Automatic annotation (TrEMBL):
Pfam families: Ricin_B_lectin. InterPro entries: Ricin_B-like_lectins, Ricin_B_lectin. SUPFAM superfamilies: Ricin B-like lectins. It comes from Oncorhynchus mykiss (Rainbow trout). It comes from the Eukaryota. Residues 10-140 form the Ricin B lectin domain. The gene is LOC110536222. This is Polypeptide N-acetylgalactosaminyltransferase 9.
Length: 148
């Protein structure tokens, strides 16, 4: 994998409330981000950049690989979606603020990506965007960039 100068962190994304589960691309036909038991395959690989993009999918030698999508909060629903990064009409919908062991906050809406318990969701866990409640996220690999 090529590391871009703007990559801050990459790898599996886990929430403190459901540590055995990772952010996942889910089924290809619905573009909904989900939580799924961690397995380390490309559908669970994420890259967070200095611009605030949170991309999910294969990590490779080009910025936007065909199967890589950006996490989106369109402000309309409670479920974050995944779209091709360059097809998002309002760029701010694809930007997030994240610090290790902190919340993941949409720059567009101010809502947080969080996990809620739900009987009708896969594994009893649903990924939502809502008012922040203090949930913490971690992305496996943190890159320390050299000081210039």
């Amino acid at each position: 994998m090529r590391i871009y100068n703007n990559t801050i962190t990459y790898g599996e994304v886990r929430n403190s409330k459901a540590s055995g589960y990772c952010l996942d691309q889910g089924s290809e036909d619905d573009d909904k981000a989900i939580l799924y038991p961690c397995h380390g395959m490309s559908s669970q690989l994420a890259r967070y950049s200095t611009e605030g993009l949170l991309q999910l999918g294969p990590l490779g030698s080009t910025t936007f690989l065909p199967d890589t999508k950006c996490l989106i909060d369109d402000g309309r629903g409670r479920t974050p979606s995944l779209k091709k990064c360059d097809s998002v009409s309002r760029v701010s919908q694809r930007l997030w603020d994240f610090t290790q062991n902190g919340p993941i906050i949409s720059r567009d809406t101010g809502r947080c990506m969080e996990v809620e318990m739900s009987k009708d969701a896969n594994f009893g866990l649903r990924l939502v965007v809502q008012r922040c409640s203090g949930q913490k996220w971690m992305i496996r690999n943190w890159i320390k960039h050299p000081k210039h």
